[in-house]
Amino acid sequence: MKILLAVDGSKFTRHAVNYLTRHPRVFGPGCEIHLIHVRVPIPGRAAAALGRDIVQRYYRTEADKALAAARRMLERGGIRHRETVLVGDPGEEVARFARKGKFDLVLMGSHGHGALAGLVLGSVATKVLAHCTVPVLLVR
């Protein structure tokens, strides 16, 4: 099974990684894990003022912070994985990457605000569900 694990660095991501590491039989032997982190882009004028190198360094630093806990948890469990960092709308990019990468499942943590709050807040989980053609497992 090929699993895309969306990571934002929150405790909700840690819950999803914990679920994955504690239920290996659910996902099958030898499953392929791929972490994805999507940064919201810095507005154009601000990015232009800062310069390309500073903006790229910022994206990489923030992505490393967001990926750190998931990376440690997987390594502690002896689970190999790959990582991808993108810049764009997180919900749309996760769904697009899942489709193009032919993943069997998207796994992600959810804040658990409920349906109404999700619609009002425009949560990433709601966007992934709306745009994704791959099955999505939300862990709370």
Descriptive overview:
It is a single chain. The model has no long low-confidence stretch (mean pLDDT 89). By secondary structure, this protein is of the alpha/beta class. Helix 1 (11-22) runs parallel beside helix 4 and helix 5 packs parallel to helix 7 (124-131). It has one domain: HUPs (Rossmann fold, 3-Layer(aba) Sandwich). It is globular. Helix content is 53%, strand content 21%. The protein has helices spanning 11-22, 24-27, 44-50, 52-76, 90-100, 115-121, 124-131, and strands at 2-6, 32-39, 81-87, 105-109, 136-139. A five-stranded parallel beta sheet has the order 3-2-1-4-5, sandwiched between helices.
Which features would summarize this protein structure in a list?
140 residues, alpha/beta, Rossmann fold, 5-stranded parallel sheet, 7 helices, 5 strands, 53% helix, globular
Fold blueprint:
Blueprint: E1 2-6, H1 11-22, H2 24-27, E2 32-39, H3 44-50, H4 52-76, E3 81-87, H5 90-100, E4 105-109, H6 115-121, H7 124-131, E5 136-139
Parallel strand pairs: 1-2, 1-4, 2-3, 4-5
Condensed summary:
By secondary structure, the chain is an alpha/beta fold.
